[in-house]
Specification:
The chain is mainly β. The protein has three domains: 3-121, Phage tail protein beta-alpha-beta fold (3-Layer(bab) Sandwich); 146-311 and 383-419 and 462-500 and 538-679 and 719-750 and 813-980, Beta Barrel (Maltoporin, Chain A); 682-714 and 755-807, no CATH class. The protein is built from twelve helices and 51 strands. The chain has a 22-stranded antiparallel beta barrel. The protein has a five-stranded antiparallel beta sheet with strand order 17-16-15-22-21. A hairpin with a 2-residue loop joins β23 and β24 (481-499).
Length: 981
């Protein structure tokens, strides 16, 4: 974010002060200058400071109103001067993308009369370990509290879906039960992860104030942002660049750092209610309090959130019958009343309006088709959610150079949803069943296509997520150096229990029973069976996971020496992390007693040890004169994993400002992702079997092979090389305008994948899959596989008849190349009592070239179902006029192709409009603290635009829209009150 955009963001209650002088620079200047600023109105003093220091300063009129500056005299560094200026105001400054943003809180301001002229802001910007500096050369997007408030979104999980760089595929609550792509199937707790560039949530590193949280899901594949209290969030910092050299594993597509309101002072209460069609409602209540004193501060925030479920029956497009949209009828053959298939294959419909106890063959309806039912009518698009979260942070200085800090977040979320868990299947009924009826009079077994929902109730899940994340430590200032020793503990527990699950063994016995008291009736219409009998046939299934991580870190950063262009700065550190994942599944479905098991071969822990260093070098600085200023950065990190070995990753960056208002930047780096725990099970979950594959070289057209399935034991990290090049332009001839462009190129290799979905092409396309085929297998090796307890020989061939061994195990197999352009345009025009701001941001993807093997041809999936679209946009026009503010936002998702069906179909583009209106009422000042009341009204998807039709099909699932690209909520209206006191 640039300074002009921050001016618009901060102008929530009165006009923002946006001070920019001709000599403003994006990087901190350390040179001393002479200041003579008397105590006066703070806004005026900040203007004078900006003129002398050459720094750009952004401050909200609400923050500066009624405050007086401290006295600043003498020859001082800009940091020391600003520290004295803000002394006693309760405000502090943060460097965000080169601009000084004034915020509420104590900061590290020195007391009046302090002679410490070397003290600097202890601010770490995402993408760098060096205080007060953004990552040189890397693109960084900052989204502040005001932007979150004006978005009309209740939660971070909802807001993150509007960011153009994010793809909603993978672990997201709307994908549970509809898609298995990108570890979506591991999302047992209906959480939401961040998926930059569509490379997977495991390839986006999410941090909480710079610390890794415990991960969610059955695989530990994502950081669940649905557990975060939105009230406590100060801003999001999104680095859309590989950063493993700074942070280690997972930072392939980028880093999202959630910053909390650790400097908040006062009290704030938030109330929010919203509703959408279909009685889909939200309720949110939050409270945050904070106070500071001369040597420290403390903040406590709590939030309660409740949301109703959204059923498929409330949305016409969430159906299996796609005929109204020009598609096929894909409804289930299982219905109530159902369909009988006689011994000769003839079909008969069971008549409606009868209980099945006196059914005769003459009442059955001969039919050429099954009676169909829409199974989606008993499935929720979104679950019922209820959550409570509590955040606390505190810091206390011990003398002039040492401070202690601690932060903690606890969240508990309960969910409930109708969802297919086991599903239904046709049942074979014999003549012993007292309700048996034979359509053709043979007395033979019949097949009944029966949906048990009417008797048992819709299947579903009910569960809980509990998350705890803590961090604590101490900092010490020694001259220009800051040293920090910290530690942390995180734990996320998730689990669910199945609802209305049918016990398959007991059902089979009830179907075969001859006693009417024990036999089930599958021939009636609706709930025709005794409830006590149904209860005796219920089964159960439950899943429990626990992810834990312990962290410890020692880091230091400061100035090494001074060059003519400024100080050369260094950051060094060492980190330790211990992660573990436990998984337990229990079910009572197919045996007389319950069974419990974990995941065979799951590692009991992972220990990571790392060291890193980062260097920032100001190469030259000619001020406003050409060639301007140039800053260079270099970083490197070495890590040792207890399970997958060593990895070392560098990163280089440069930022050149040849002329005022113009900056050119570039970065290059290597990144990686360590395998998930359940990808390291090795041979413990191996499965070997004989198989016939299509083979054009065989006289019969097929060849007998030995197929290896499971996970290879030598899985290693996924690796990536990324570089970016960009431009930031703020023209002097058009004050308030800005333009940022970033080209990105990510080469992702050794991706963990399996090619078994292309199994029948292995022997046909040896040019692609030849590396996974052993055409001359050793007979002793084949014999060893035949003797393995995990071997199955369904086709009954002998070891000597195996012509090839085909390795279909999951391995470091595929690669991806992602190329595209991020852009951000903005304009802010100050008004007498407010401002007008315009913005347009988006991502244009050029290619996502996937290769299942090194020799496979490139497959560009950009703009296809299951991958990000080629163009996503979000634009906004906003105005602040005194106590009133309003804005209109437009979200656009470009059209794309659905190649999962034949013939391929085009999915139309989707554009929605959001409206936000706000009004401040009855502001007052008391004890230098602003009292405020802001009432906001928002409408998301103002015109209630349905998602475009898409024939979205997955295993056992069919719906008429794409949940990875569009929301099914429709128009929602929300009213929010924010009370500051």
């Amino acid at each position: 974010m640039k300074a002009k955009l921050f001016a618009a963001m901060l102008a929530s209650s009165t006009a923002a002060i946006a001070i920019q002088v001709p000599s403003a620079q994006a990087q901190t200047r350390a040179a001393q200058q002479t200041y003579n600023i008397a105590p006066q109105d703070l806004a005026t003093a900040l203007q004078r400071y900006s003129q002398v220091s050459g720094r750009e300063v952004i401050a909200s009129g609400t923050l500066t109103a009624g405050k007086r500056s401290g006295r600043v005299t003498g020859r001082l560094t800009p940091d020391a001067a600003l520290s004295r200026l803000l002394s006693g105001t309760g405000l502090f400054a943060e460097i965000v993308d080169g601009a000084l943003v004034i915020r509420s809180g104590n900061g590290d301001a020195a007391e009046p009369g302090s002679t410490d002229t070397h003290r600097e802001e202890a601010i770490i910007v995402t993408g760098s370990r060096i205080r007060g500096r953004g990552p040189a050369g890397s693109p960084l997007l900052a989204i502040d509290r005001d932007t979150l408030d004006r978005s009309g979104r209740a939660t971070l999980a909802d807001f993150i879906q509007t960011i153009p760089q994010n793809f909603s595929g993978g672990p997201a609550e709307a994908n549970v039960g509809t898609s298995a792509r990108g570890n979506a199937a591991s999302n047992i707790g209906y959480g939401t992860g961040i998926n930059l560039r569509g490379l997977g949530t495991g390839s986006t590193l999410t941090l909480l104030d710079g610390t890794r949280p415990a991960l969610g899901g059955a695989s530990g594949a994502f950081a669940d942002i649905s557990t975060l209290p939105s009230l406590a969030v100060e801003r999001l910092e999104i680095l859309t660049d590989g950063a493993s050299a700074i942070y280690g594993s997972d930072a392939v597509a980028g880093v999202v750092n959630v910053r909390f309101r650790n400097r908040f002072e006062g009290a704030e209460t938030r109330l929010r209610v919203s509703s959408a069609d279909g009685d889909y409602s939200e309720y949110q209540l939050g409270q945050i309090v904070g106070t500071g004193w001369a040597t420290g501060h403390i903040v406590v925030a709590g939030e309660y959130y409740r949301r109703g479920s959204l059923g498929s029956e409330e949305r016409a497009f969430a159906t299996e019958d796609l005929r109204p949209f020009g598609g096929p009828d894909l409804r289930s053959n299982l219905a109530s009343p159902g369909t009988i298939v006689a011994a000769n294959g003839q079909r008969f419909l069971i008549p409606r309006g009868q209980d099945g106890t006196a059914l005769t063959p003459s009442q059955l309806i001969s039919s050429s088709d099954f009676r169909r039912s829409d199974a989606r009518r008993n499935v929720d698009i979104l679950p019922r959610q209820e959550s409570f979260s509590l955040y606390a942070s505190g810091e206390q200085a011990l003398g002039d150079h040492i401070s202690l800090f601690a932060r903690g977040l606890y969240a508990e979320r309960h969910f409930e949803a109708r969802r297919r868990v086991i599903g239904a299947s046709p049942q074979v009924v014999g003549p012993d069943n007292p309700y048996y009826v034979d359509p053709i009079g043979t007395g033979e077994e019949i097949i009944v296509y029966y949906d048990p929902t009417a008797n048992f109730g819709p299947e579903g899940v009910r569960g809980t997520v509990k998350a705890l994340n803590t961090s604590f430590g101490a900092r010490a200032d020694i001259g220009s150096w800051n040293i920090e020793l910290s530690g942390g503990y995180g734990r996320q527990r998730e689990g669910y229990d199945g609802v209305n699950i049918v016990h398959l063994l007991r059902l089979a016995r009830a179907i075969a029973a001859s006693d009417p008291a024990q036999a089930i009736n599958l021939f009636g219409d609706g709930a025709v069976n005794d409830p006590a009998l149904i209860d005796s046939l219920r089964g159960s299934i439950s899943v429990r996971t626990r992810y834990e991580n312990w962290t410890a870190a020692l880091r230091a950063d400061g100035s090494l020496f001074t060059l003519p262009a400024g100080a050369v700065k260094l950051a060094i550190g060492a980190e330790y992390r211990r992660d573990s994942l436990d998984y337990l599944q229990s079910f009572d479905l197919v045996t007389d007693g319950p069974l419990s098991f974990g995941i065979d071969g799951l590692p009991d822990k992972r220990i990571v040890k790392a060291i890193y260093g980062e260097l920032a070098i100001p190469v030259f600085d000619a001020g406003e004169s050409f060639p301007g200023s140039l800053t260079f950065s270099a970083a490197g990190r070495y890590e040792h994993y207890s399970d997958v070995g060593d990895t070392a990753n560098p990163k280089l960056g440069a930022r050149w400002e040849p002329l005022p208002g113009l900056a050119l930047r570039a970065s290059y780096g290597r990144s990686f992702r360590a395998p998930f725990f359940d990808e390291l099970v090795g041979t413990a979950n191996a499965f070997y079997q004989t198989f016939y594959l299509n083979d054009p070289t065989s006289p019969t057209g097929q060849t007998a092979v030995l197929l290896l399935s499971g996970y290879r034991p030598d899985l290693g990290p996924e690796k990536a090389t990324s570089w970016t090049a960009g431009i930031d332009f703020e023209p002097r001839f058009l004050p308030g305008a800005k333009l940022s462009l970033t080209y990105f190129d990510i080469r992702y290799r050794d991706r963990i994948a399996s090619a078994t979905s292309f199994l029948q092409q292995f022997l046909v396309r040896r040019d692609i899959y030849g590396g996974m085929i052993d055409d001359t297998p050793d007979l002793a090796e084949v014999a060893a596989y035949f003797a393995d307890p995990n071997f199955f020989n369904a086709i009954g061939i002998l070891p000597g008849e195996v012509s090839a061994i085909v390795d279909g195990r999951t391995r470091n197999l595929s690669r991806s190349t992602v190329q595209g352009l991020d852009f951000d345009l903005g304009y802010v025009k100050p008004l007498v009592d407010g401002s007008i701001n315009l913005s347009l941001g988006g991502t244009r993807l050029f290619t996502i070239d996937n290769r299942i093997t090194d020799s496979a041809p490139r497959n560009n999936v950009a703009g296809t179902l299951g991958a990000p679209v080629k163009l996503r946009l979000r634009g906004r026009a906003g105005v602040v006029l005194g106590a009133f503010d309003g804005g209109i936002a437009v979200n656009h998702v470009a059209s794309y192709r659905n190649l999962t069906v034949t013939p391929a179909e085009r999915v139309k583009s989707w554009t929605t409009v959001d409206l936000q209106l706000g009004l401040r009422i009855g502001e007052a000042q008391k004890a230098n603290r602003a009292r405020s009341f802001r009432l906001a009204f928002s409408v998301n998807n103002l015109f209630d635009t349905d998602p475009p039709y898409a024939q979205f099909r997955s295993t056992g699932v069919t719906i008429g829209y794409d949940p990875e690209q569009a929301s099914a909520i429709g128009r929602s209206l929300a009213l929010q009150a924010i009370i500051g006191w």
